[in-house]
Amino acid sequence: MTVAIPKETAEHENRVALIPETVKKLTDLGLDVVVEKEAGLASNYLDDAYIESGATIQDDRSELLKSADILISIQTPPSEDLETLSEGTILICFLWALQNEETVELLKSKSITALGMDAIPRISRAQNMDALSSMSSIAGYKSALIGANELDRYLPMMMTAAGTIAPAKVLVLGAGVAGLQAIATAKRLGAVVEAFDIRPAVKEQVESLGATFVEVPDLDDESETEGGYAKELAEDEQERQRQVIHEHAKKSDIIITTALIPGKPAPLLVTKEMVNDMHAGAVIVDLAAENGGNCELTEAGETVIENEVKVIGPINITSMLAYHASQLYSKNMWGLLNHLLDEEGKPHFDFEDEITLNTTITHEGDIISPMLKEN
Ligand code: NAD
């Protein structure tokens, strides 16, 4: 059984799917691991470390793809790569199957068994495989650092001989995985932090990090699905929410937006009018940039300056911390492989199992994922 790790080809992608430490676990199980030359270079995992872990380095990408029984990557490989794979190959990566119909058709027609790291259910048994949470946590941390870096002010309170400087005010919108990490990071840097989320359940978590929870009056108590995700707000609730955010935005130095409703475009929380009411030099970091943005002015991958306010729309922010992002993704991948492989390193697909069922998108020419079947 050969596990192959290609070099990522997407723009801005510096991560590698498996780090040498995880490769060692696979070679100890008796699996052959082939790594494309310099696959880990951009995240500082060097070829020599892979060789020490028992892997072989392959210079020829098409040979690597042809040799794969299991192909492990971060982003979905381009279609020409998928065409090169043999029938029955197992592919594990971020697939975003709902948004990528053509790729799913290709995987189905080639009888590739494709597992989506983004489709791992957020249940406690699958926590060690939850790559989305690992990556969002990194994004939240880095968003606070980007905000601090771009702001022309201190974050902490400073008592100097030249006078006292008040701490910066940070407003975090959306207190899920990324939002909570942004709050924690901004607090550690000494800012005064406020946060808002439509799920009242997170108020306690926000407060436990030392931030103030912003209350919007009369929001529906049922703003959460059974799976713990947010539901879309009604139009009048959205309007009330915007009024409250507007008041808090006027006083904020940094706004970090992370609001997400699974399967929907990012909710619009910060309007152009609000940006115009912020002070000169204020910064907005919009983590939802790739999904349409939580701010009306966001452009993915760009910094827009409106009325001297910087609106930053970072893309693939996790690649800015590629070493640890690769480490965490690799550990999540090991969690999933451990779940699928038997003691001899052979994969088994038990579709009675909730994790395997939800994560498997295609298998033997069929669609397996209930999420896709329902769609
Ligand atoms: P999550 O589901 O854990 O959290 C999203 C939060 O938004 C939830 O708590 C939800 O209740 C809240 N929310 C939904 N609608 C809201 C509204 N109208 N007002 C306030 N809060 C609202 O998601 P996450 O994993 O923390 O990801 C957050 C965002 O970060 C997503 O947009 C994700 O795509 C993005 N992200 C970006 C990168 C990157 O590289 N740029 C990397 C990882 C995550």
Task: Describe the structure using short key phrases.
375 residues, alpha/beta, Rossmann fold, 2 domains, 8-stranded mixed β-sheet, 7-stranded mixed β-sheet, 34% helix, globular, binds nicotinamide-adenine-dinucleotide, NAD(P)-bd_dom_sf, AlaDH/PNT_N, proton-translocating NAD(P)(+) transhydrogenase
Please give a structural write-up.
This protein has helices at residues 20-28, 47-52, 61-67, 79-84, 101-109, 131-150, 177-188, 203-208, 235-250, 272-276, 322-340, 354-359, 370-374, and strands spanning 2-5, 32-36, 56-58, 70-72, 90-93, 113-116, 158-160, 163-165, 169-173, 192-196, 212-213, 254-257, 283-286, 303-306, 309-312, 360-363, 366-367. The strands form three sheets. Strands 3-2-1-4-5-6-16-17 form an eight-stranded mixed sheet, sandwiched between helices. Strands 11-10-9-12-13-15-14 form a seven-stranded mixed sheet, sandwiched between helices. The protein is globular, with a radius of gyration of 22 Å. The longest helix has 20 residues, at 131-150. The chain has 13 helices and 17 strands. 45% of the residues are buried. The model has no long low-confidence stretch (mean pLDDT 95). It has 375 residues and is of the alpha/beta class. It folds into two domains: 2-129 and 324-374, Rossmann fold, CATH 3.40.50.720; 137-320, 3-Layer(aba) Sandwich (Rossmann fold). Bound molecules: nicotinamide-adenine-dinucleotide (NAD).
| Count of discrete structural domains | 2
| Helix-strand makeup class | alpha/beta
- Low-confidence stretches at least 5 residues in length (pLDDT < 50)? none
Oligomer: single chain
Which ligands accompany this protein? Answer: nicotinamide-adenine-dinucleotide
Largest sheet: 8 strands, mixed
Assign the CATH architecture of the largest domain.
Answer: 3-Layer(aba) Sandwich
From the alpha-carbon coordinates, what is the Rg to the nearest angstrom?
Answer: 22 Å
Taken from the alpha-carbon principal axes, the silhouette is globular
Average pLDDT, all residues = 95
Termini distance? 34 Å
Order of helices and strands: EHEHEHEHEHEHEEEHEHEHEHEEEHHEEH
Number of helices: 13
CATH topology of the largest domain: Rossmann fold
Strand content: 15-25%
Number of strand elements: 17
CATH classification class of the largest domain: Alpha Beta
- Portion of residues within helices: 25-40%
